[in-house]
Amino acid sequence: MNAAVTALLDRTGGIATTAQLLTVMTRQQLDVQVRRGGLVRVWYGVYSRAMPDLVGRLAALDVFMGQWAVASMGTAAALYGFDTENTAAIHVLDPGIRLRSTVGLVVHQRIGAPVQWVAGRPATSPAWTAVEVARQLNRPRALATLDAALHSQWCTPGNLDQAVIAQRGRRGIRAVRDLLPFADARSESAMESEARLVMIDHGLPAPELQYTISAPGGQRWRVDFAWPEARIAAEYESIEWHAGRAEMLRDKARFAGVQELGWTVIPIVADDVRRRPARLAERIAIHLARAA
Predict the structure, then answer these.
(1) Against a cut of 0.85, is the pTM above it?
(2) What pLDDT is recorded for position 253?
(3) What's domain 208-291's architecture?
(4) How far apart are the C-alpha atoms of 172 and 159, rounded to whole Å?
(5) Annotated domain spans of the chain
(6) Please, which residues have CB within 8 angstroms of residue 290's CB and are 6 or more apart in sequence?
(7) Cα dihedral sign for 174, 176, 178, 180?
């Protein structure tokens, strides 16, 4: 890539339009750079050195539209830090100009959606976003979104209540309203939320979340779920968590320490939650009954 193109991209924040690029290179040179990977087309007529991150893709869309793109749905959730669904496409509100959904872009008609600024750009408000995302999902993932929204500290239970009222009558809103009493900011992962919903749906006693167990020597271990009176703990174990030897050894030492204090630790994996929820609930219930 020639120095003039590099200088142009430096001046424009790494994003340039076709018209800007054609002031320092020919159309043929532009096409060659795109084929070779020296430039990436982010949106039609908008280019960058490499595919930018989420904020960069939104900034490129601003350039394409000639105005601010208002992030919504999973894109807004990602800006606030509670996108549990790993949203890949860019979701924005209809800007009122001719903008259509295409590969990697979803345009939403969301009249009345409140907007605020986050990460230096406009997005639908946190609670509105959480409720709107949740009502598109099944119950376990919806609870995970509500938990994550509260955990992010961008919204409160009261904010979520108000957003549910504001979206009254829309598809899926009743299921979200029914889940609100169970949403908990202490949940630290989507699978923890899904596991907790299994416990709720099967009528198990509500566990303490992120409970700290202290040993006489001063050591402290935290568990995902705990029934302290029964000295029962449950831990969600993911493949990612045990991806390294050090993590596995640390986890085993923690379990051993908890068990030495007379606690029973119940391991939970994804298949327990999603394929055998009744059996998972039964296992927990049996341990609680034995402790009683």
Answers:
(1) yes
(2) 76
(3) 3-Layer(aba) Sandwich (3.40)
(4) 18
(5) 3-48, 66-125, 128-185, 208-291
(6) none
(7) negative
